[in-house]
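quick one, two chains, predict together pls
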Amino acid sequence: MTCLPKNPTEKKLGLVIDLDICVGCHACAVNCKEWNTAGKSAPLTDYDPYGKKPDGVWFNRIHTYETDDGQGNGTTVHFPRSCLHCEDAPCVTVCPTGASYKRTEDGIVLVNEDICIGCKLCSWACPYGAREYDEAEGVMKKCTLCVDKIYNENLPETSRVPACVSTCPAGARSFGDLGDPDSEVSKLVAARGGVELMPEQGTKPVNRYLPPRPRKKGEEGKAPRMLNHSDDSADGAGLIARWVDKILS
Amino acid sequence: MGLNPFETVKEEVGLSPKVSDEVKTSTCYMCACRCGIKVHLKNGQIRYIEGNPDHPVNKGVLCAKGSSGIMHQYAPAKLTKPLLRTGERGSGEFKEIEWDEALELATEWLGDVRQRDPGKLAFFTGRDQSQSLTGWWATKFGTHNFAAHGGFCSVNMAGGGLYTLGGAFWEFGEPDFERTKYMMMFGVADDHDSNPIKLGLGNLKSRGDAKFVSVNPIRTGYSAIADEWVGIRPGTDGLFIFALIHELLRAEKIDFASLARYSNAPWLVIREEGAADNGLFLRNEDGHPLVWDLASGGPVSGMAAEFSPAFAGEREVLGRTVVPSFQILAERYMSAEFSPEAVAETTGIPAEVTRRIAAEIAEAAFEQEVVIDQPWTDAWGRKHEKMIGRPVAFHAMRGISAHSNGFHTCRAIHILQALIGSVDTPGGWRYKPPFPKPAPPGIKPAFPKAEAATPLDGPPLGFPRSPDDLVVDQHGDPLRIDKAYSWEYPLALHGMMHMVLHNAAKQDPYGIDVLFMFMANMAWNSSMNIPETLGYFTKKDENGEYVIPKIIYSDAFWSETVPYCDLILPDTTYLERHDAISMLDRPISTAHGAGDSIRQPVIEPDRDVRPFQTVLLDLGARLGLPGMVNEDGSPKYPGGYADYIVNHERSPGIGPLAGWRGTDGEKEGVGEVNPNQLERYIENGCFWSQDLPHSAQYFKHSNREYLDHAVKMGWIGHADPITFHLYNEDLQRFRLAAQGHGEKQPPEQHRTRIETYFDPLPIWYQPFLEAEEGGDEFPVHALSQRPMHMYHSWGSQNAWLRQITSANKLHVHHKLAAKHDLKDDDYVWIQNSRGRVKAQVKLVDGVNENVVWTWNAIGKRKGAWGLDKDSPETTKAFLLNHIITEQLAPGADGHAYSNSDPVTGQAAWYDLRVQLQKCAPEDATEEGARFAPLPDRTSKVVNKGRYGAQLTGEDTGGAAPLREFIGQRSANASAIPGIRPGRGNQVEEDA
């Protein structure tokens, strides 16, 4: 019931997340919480912070899965999950009040908390579970792509990126305009075969995930499968005998 | 604002809200990693903590722990005032007292001990980053009974490295992530070098031209992104390394030129069984070891510049029968018992995998040399046009260290690096200044004097090189309370904090008068065998007096340990005090150059607490300790720790901080005191760093320019090259003593043990506890590791981090689970002969089939840490510590050794073996309290879960232009056209 921008936005700001090097350390999630708890959607309420059911509002959550490459090789994958700032964002169109909207300037999907009635329709509509209902405040919150940080003239240039990006210790997160095919993030996505999450949902997510690279298990390497022994004598005695008078250096 | 549902309402979003009133830099202390931080402050509260982009350790990134510093600062568990125990130990009954009274009382207790026998003070600090202060304080007090928690943590790593290469992992060195082609990591969960390792692994994987192998029983974290995960059986890494060495030796994939120049491999060892100097190096009259020079056909000094040494061959030299030490090494590791096939069953690694990895190491080292066009001069003055690297780098940590065979395994890892010639070469593992130091460094542990009010002659901790350096009495019995540096644990370089309570309570070797501890949770997760450890705290003698008469403790939080102590000196948080991350201790150097840093108070304490280091200096002054008082008896550092950091000189011109020394701040390393030093640090972001010239960045052990620089900076005493000790003569000296040679003889009961474990070349043996009770009855290895978001973090159960993890499960391989009919969330007893703990299971694939594991230190005792009594940490979470013994079963002579490495005394908490037993239905519930709840004495001044609501900023208008940010920008730029090099949103061509 709320309209998306009439034309696709020119800029499509989003994240590129490299699953090949994400070690699942939760730095992005906590630094996001830290920035945003005093940011546009402040606070990111903590329920029962020292009690039986510690939980709260997080814009970014990390999941760890065990999976299989189909050939019996198990892998462990760390998967950070946050809003994908979809072009056809169902969380926007489902909103009965206009609180949920997509910015025409840069494509960021935001919630106007002043007119959010907390009906949670958007969280039902979002196939990614990226919405965070603040039970204490009765309004919906979500990743803002740090809209109050990325353009912020009160911060030095190095800080003008989403908190999850600048803090990532592995360098697994990139940020830029995915609507511009010549942008560096677009080149990164192209080179690494970056994927949309659940494209079948038709939401046209902006964020991209870079799949884990093929692992170098040894079959593809230049190295031989085993070294040629110079000598097969018991316990290497023949080799030692050869070294006695040999200038080896 | 209209509420027409049929049109989108335009929200005016402030793009430039004011963030803070002030930004202060400091150094993080949410773990041991020492990252630079920028703390944004608003209305006197912390708005935001981010990584400092200019800082050499973290380069702007910040982990989950550092990012949750706000919740550390505002935790309800903080102590608020000095406490004096009024009830029984463990009751948690205290009265609040004023600082004057607390300090007078501490001075009285400590002064009494010092007048009787200073050694009856046991002063043990935990995760202490100020050991150059605390060790110095102990020296001046006169107690040899000092150490931090390294004996529990990593001494096998430190010792194994320092006795082999004169450096080690973490604070002593790092992999050359940006150039390596083959990276192997052994037994690492997260690590002390948390952010640098993540930055480095991200770099090498993004470059795409390197392979990363993780050898670890558990496939989490770093292992999850490894190209190859080798799920080794715990405690068998040594055998795996031997098999790799076996393959490399047999294929002659050895860098003999490097060994000839940099190692003792060609040095001649006396091989005369039964001789008093059997196994020692043959030396000339100058004391130089000899090598057999094939070019001249005779012996020459191993210190000479030019020779063509023999690496094998028994010869008669100076009337003695000798062989190059390399031959002894080659004989051992080429033997059939260390072939890939022979070790496969024990390690669980198929022989073909070991063979292939050896081939890959050789290929990377010898076929993919990294060549830097950078002339340099070696220690003998020879000029080299290029720096040639063998780009194979190793890193190892806790999973190697915390086994009772860890010292030898760690030595083996370093020896492998030396054999392929990769040490401190481009792409290899590299030293961080002030390392390398001679292997081992020259400091010896001080001997106790047992004289009233008398300082020691030197620091309590050092590096023994022979039985003469042991801290034992005329009978060979231990003189330290922890038995470090005794015949039982001769190279216990970091002390054995894990045995202090046990030994003190049993008065073995003697009783102590005062135990003084700092930042060590000894009544919980920093001890093995918690149930009995609590009994050591509370043990009374026949007169009803505590056997450990007085316990003083300093910490910032109401931990499980506080209620068991008598006098509590509440510490500040890391954001409320000064600190020095010093070149005298564990600085922030990188392989590119030295660095040190400070903390500055960024926020005023809101409680009656004082920084521990300032309190320690105050106590030192009250006690009149030398160096802490002026001649008139007044305190030498009335300004506390900050005063000391600036004005203390350990030796002329050398103080806690190396940067901006000299009266005008123009000197580095050595220089007069600069009264404005802290201001200069703060201007620079609270750190100092000094990049080495490119010509001095590699081959530091034998780089003339580097060695001369290191002497000038005061890091090493002389500029001689630093030799790699593959064959370790110091260990052989202990073995010779055990064989009956020399005046200093081990007591009979320890003789065989010394002879067995002081092998001059690495050996492998089944870990002790496993050998003792690891048979069919207890077939499963049980390991614990901390999650990355809590690794080595200290403090409260952080309000944000506990939302990620507040309970732990036991991770069990599907196949093992099937044997026990276990499904997800079933309850299981984890049991051994010491007891049992209950856990809920989670089935996984990414673990060795003989191993179960859990997250460590999640479980908390009810009442501690400011948590509600029904918190999952106290109802669902569990610790394996409860069933890890600190002491092995007594031998035939009734003597029981610590569950520790026999060389270094490192606590062997990874040697645990257990059996699983599915809980009967009536047991399959959350366990009743295992320990009685502690009273909750925390402040309860907490955030109400709405932190930040009060800190939002007014929009100041405007919008800065957007900049793209590419993670691992330079590494990606090297592999992907169109991406420009630089870091993050900064591009090199802009600069």
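The longest helix of chain A spans residues 27-36.
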